User: Which sequence fits this backbone?
């Protein structure tokens, strides 16, 4: 079975002045980047996400601090600690995502291949399972 957690290793260009990572469309980021957003100033014990997207690919990288990312395709559930700016995780379409255990200083950057679209969200887990074709839809007679 294909692994859900696909990590992208972002190499560090470091010298005596410090470190730098570069994110480039179609090079180390496997799509055209249309949107970048950051999650920060998170509150202790507060989790985020709890939805899937119908048509969105994203790469999440924790620039500062850490958080635990849970991915679920309806059949398997895997998790990874995002705890370094050199570690990206790919979040594909029709993947349920949850983010937990943010450290107070966490800055989570997300690169997306689509503009923001509230219609693209699936916020109900049962509907997500139906969309991911893992639960047969009950037909009305
Ligand atoms: C995801 C995980 C990893 C915008 O106006 N534009 C945007 O580009 C985004 C991402 C959000 N928003 C607004 C919509 C809400 O009013 O910001 C508010 C918080 O968004 P949301 O509740 O979707 O945030 P999270 O942290 O639950 O989820 C976010 C992304 O939305 C989601 O696509 O995959 O981070």
Assistant:
């Amino acid at each position: 079975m294909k692994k859900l957690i696909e990590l992208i290793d972002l190499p560090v260009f470091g010298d005596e002045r410090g470190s730098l990572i570069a994110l480039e469309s179609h090079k180390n980021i496997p799509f055209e980047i249309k949107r970048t957003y950051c999650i920060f100033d998170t509150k202790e014990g507060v989790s985020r996400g709890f939805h899937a997207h119908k048509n969105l690919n994203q790469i999440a990288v924790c620039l500062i601090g850490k958080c635990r990312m849970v991915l679920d395709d309806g059949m398997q559930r895997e998790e990874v600690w995002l705890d370094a700016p050199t570690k990206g995780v790919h979040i594909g379409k029709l993947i349920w995502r949850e983010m937990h255990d943010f450290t107070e200083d966490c800055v989570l950057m997300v690169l997306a291949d689509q503009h923001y679209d509230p219609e693209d969200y699936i916020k109900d887990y049962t509907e997500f399972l139906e969309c991911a074709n893992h639960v047969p839809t009950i037909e009305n007679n």
About this structure: The chain has a mean pLDDT of 94.
